[in-house]
Task: inverse folding
């Protein structure tokens, strides 16, 4: 078969396919006894309605709703006034859980806590600080992962954690337990307030990963047997700071 003949054969096959498609759709319209719709319907409204875009809770309402929604999914929420109280909570929880290995993000907010000075009997590692280290394996071995939330959403009870070179997704996904510090200025009412930032950033400005965490990992099989901690930490703490 020459190239020209093959090209003609492909065109004929495509034409036959389109004719069969049209015949099929015409037959459906005939059986429904109504004309075929060949043009896309008008969409006078796109995206969230205006009333929802304007919907806002007060700061205290956001705290109350986030706490209720996050706890309803099995998470734990604690309110602290500042990062010193957050540090005290972490130290207390590490001692209570007898944690021997902690992995945290490589960010300034966590570095200033100087956890390694308080937790002398616990190994504290910082993500991606050694090129020779197998960090995913270390994350899987960690008793507790510690992260700073980039956003939180009250309406859905979700924490948003972005991944990057210094904030590996494994820190929040692989340890047995997770402690997420949520500065109150990052707590939003609606999910759209978070998503719009990603939309405005465009494809080139998106982070390596965007993770929404709504309590501990929950998995259920076809018989509705619920299992906690299969695809992520089984214990999740959210520390609202401010």
Result:
């Amino acid at each position: 078969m020459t190239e020209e003949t093959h090209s003609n054969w492909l065109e004929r096959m495509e034409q036959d396919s389109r004719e069969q498609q049209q015949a099929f759709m015409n037959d459906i319209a005939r059986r429904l006894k109504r004309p075929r719709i060949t043009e896309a319907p008008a969409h006078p409204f796109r995206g969230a309605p205006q009333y929802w875009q304007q919907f806002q809770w007060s700061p205290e309402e956001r705290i109350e709703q986030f706490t209720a929604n996050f706890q309803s999914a099995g998470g734990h929420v604690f309110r602290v006034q500042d990062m010193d109280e957050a540090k005290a909570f972490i130290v207390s929880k590490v001692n209570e859980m007898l944690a021997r290995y902690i992995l945290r993000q490589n960010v300034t907010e966590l570095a200033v806590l100087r956890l390694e000075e308080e937790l002398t009997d616990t190994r504290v590692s910082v993500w991606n600080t050694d090129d020779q280290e197998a960090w995913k394996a270390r994350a899987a071995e960690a008793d507790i992962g510690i992260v700073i939330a980039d956003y939180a959403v009250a309406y859905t009870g979700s924490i948003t954690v972005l991944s990057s070179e210094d904030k590996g997704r494994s820190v929040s996904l692989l340890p047995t337990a997770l402690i997420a510090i949520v500065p109150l200025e990052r707590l939003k009412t609606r999910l759209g307030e978070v998503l719009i930032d990603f939309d405005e950033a465009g494809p080139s400005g998106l982070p390596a990963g965007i993770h929404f965490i709504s309590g501990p990992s929950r998995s259920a099989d076809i018989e509705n047997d619920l299992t906690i901690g299969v695809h992520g930490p089984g214990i999740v703490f959210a520390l609202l700071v401010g």
